[in-house]
Amino acid sequence: MSASPAESDVEIEIEKKFAVNDQTSAILESYGFGVVQKEEFVDWYFDLPAPRWKFCLDDCWFRYREKKVQVMNNWGWRGAWQVKRGRKGRRETDGMTTYEELQGKAAKELILDMLSKVTIDETIGVECTSNLQLQYNTHDIPHLEGGEQLVPFARIQTFRTCWMTNETANEFSGLKVDIDKADSGYMVGEVEALCNGISSHEDVENEKEKIRKFVDLITRKSENDVEATTIGKLEFVLMKESPDLYDACVKAGVINESK
Prior knowledge:
- This protein is an alpha+beta fold.
- The chain has six helices and eight strands; from the N terminus they run βαββββααβββααα.
- Strands 1-5-4-3-2-6-7-8 form an eight-stranded antiparallel beta barrel.
- The protein is globular.
């Protein structure tokens, strides 16, 4: 039986990325935003072994996120499986993205259900190791029972600062701004809104317009040249570490080619 996720298990994540500089924090503060959280996490991305990538080419991303957490006086890591699935299967030209997102048990069930539909022809003869995968041997690679076909194609450690406003009258209330710095040194900002799985098309489109307006204001207020459309951390890593997969994603239409 197909494990279709219940609408209550699904969040709709709408976001648009932008380049950051040393003025970004001051600009956010000028719009009534303040830092609400700082966090550190590691994202692992999985698919079938190269060159038989399947799920990411359908704009469906299997991810395991490990967050650094404090329990009493000790620090450790706590992880969960996640799935990000494009609602349209294509990215909008201005970089706005809309994804269905599942976490935990619902994500694992969906991953296993999708893997159960993979044919033998799609995996036969595939070498399960590569130089890229061997680089992860010094790490404790997450394992999903029943998902042994999956191998990692990217690992990204991120230091994130989250911004929000508590001003209910603020026209951008409800939006969250994340400023991310990856272990590669790459930095990117994103403005995000979350809707539940039963949100109407009109609700989603309204959130998109609010995000577009805020990103435009952030980038126009900067004295330096800051592009409103920029690439994400994963795209940056794929360009640098896995150009064949990056090119395949561009060809499939799930990533806009970086100019």
